[in-house]
């Protein structure tokens, strides 16, 4: 999807060749890449394949819950921005709750209002914030993995692919096990499903004193990054002008540098912090990373991240 929207300056043939060279589930990954492109190019065709009984003209807004629709409506009638929020707002509600999604929309609307004052109906800055703030507000932690594994759409996909009686095994590598020295994933069968249900229910613990998973360095870094980016967005709202608009759009898009898991993600956060400081300084913004519990940059992971980038 990122490739089809023009966000990746890499030829499609090069991406597919990289998938083949990687040698892991080549056909499945090629299919995933091509389906992702088709979702952007012709969503109605994809919907018709996934659910032939659904009318092709069904609107995404019709499927929104009342609380999600109310939040999406706050950005008005801008089509591109609405499409982004129609995806992200329901996901944030499912990820945590409506208050979490409302916090997200508050920031997006503040940027939208500031951008309108200097750029009319242009929404490049608002779209950049909407996409990147969502990424930081919904990291894939233990609670989210449980929710995704138990998602009804995922369960239906497994039934369609393997039949109703198929045995499922999940290969997971929880953060707390890594802290105990476990370097490989563990296989968990159907007996683990009740634990997944408990984890999905326990998402309300996320970020509280009861969140035992949230005490790892990576989870603390993720929370601090979100708080930092929200502060950075508030600084941009106060400073946006017609002259610095393009530079602010680039600054707002920097969370895209944060990717991967564990050491690779920590290495990418180091890269993100350095780039934010460089670009913000050029704009006269002083970003504060106080409270960011950054461990030393892992040398091996840094090299791996740079190769991937």
Describe the structure.
With 309 residues, the chain is mainly α. Helix 1 (12-22) packs antiparallel against helix 2 (26-41) and helix 5 (79-95) runs parallel beside helix 7. Strands 1-2 form a two-stranded antiparallel sheet. It is globular. The chain starts with 11 loop residues before the first helix and ends with a helix. The protein is 61% helix and 2% strand. The chain contains 15 helices and 2 strands. Residues 56-62 have low confidence and may be disordered.
Strand content is: under 5%
Percent helix: 55-70%
Mean pLDDT, all residues = 85
Name the helix and strand elements from N-terminus to C-terminus, one letter apiece: HHHHHHHHHEHEHHHHH
Structural class: mainly alpha
Tell me the total number of β-strands: 2
Major sheet attributes: 2 strands, antiparallel
Summarize it:
This protein is an all-alpha fold and 309 residues long. The protein contains 15 helices and two strands.
């Amino acid at each position: 999807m990122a490739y089809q929207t023009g966000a990746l300056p890499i030829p499609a043939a090069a991406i597919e060749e990289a998938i083949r060279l990687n040698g892991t589930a080549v056909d499945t990954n090629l299919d995933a890449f091509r389906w992702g492109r088709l979702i952007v190019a012709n969503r109605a065709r994809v919907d018709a394949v996934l659910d032939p009984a659904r009318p092709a003209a069904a609107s995404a807004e019709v499927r929104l819950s009342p609380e999600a629709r109310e939040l999406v409506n706050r950005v008005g009638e801008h089509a591109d921005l609405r499409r982004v929020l129609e995806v992200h707002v329901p996901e944030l509600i499912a990820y945590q709750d409506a208050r979490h999604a409302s916090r997200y929309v508050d920031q997006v609307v503040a940027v939208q209002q500031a951008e309108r004052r200097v750029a009319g109906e242009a929404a490049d800055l608002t779209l950049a914030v909407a996409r990147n703030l969502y990424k930081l507000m919904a990291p894939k932690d233990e609670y989210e993995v449980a929710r995704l594994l138990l998602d009804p759409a995922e369960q239906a996909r497994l039934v369609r692919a393997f039949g109703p009686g198929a045995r499922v095994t999940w290969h997971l590598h929880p953060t707390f096990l890594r802290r105990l020295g476990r370097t490989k994933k563990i296989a968990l069968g159907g007996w683990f499903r009740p634990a997944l249900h408990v984890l999905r229910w326990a998402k309300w613990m996320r970020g509280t004193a009861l969140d035992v998973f949230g005490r790892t360095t990576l989870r603390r870094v993720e929370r601090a990054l979100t708080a930092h980016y929200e502060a950075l967005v508030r600084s941009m709202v106060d400073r946006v002008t017609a002259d610095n608009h393009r530079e602010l759009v680039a600054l707002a898009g920097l969370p895209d540098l944060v990717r991967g898991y564990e050491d690779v993600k920590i290495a990418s956060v180091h890269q993100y912090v350095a780039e934010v400081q460089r670009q913000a300084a050029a704009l006269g913004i002083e970003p504060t990373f106080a409270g960011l519990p950054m461990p030393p940059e892992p040398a091996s992971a840094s090299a791996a991240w740079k190769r991937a980038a």
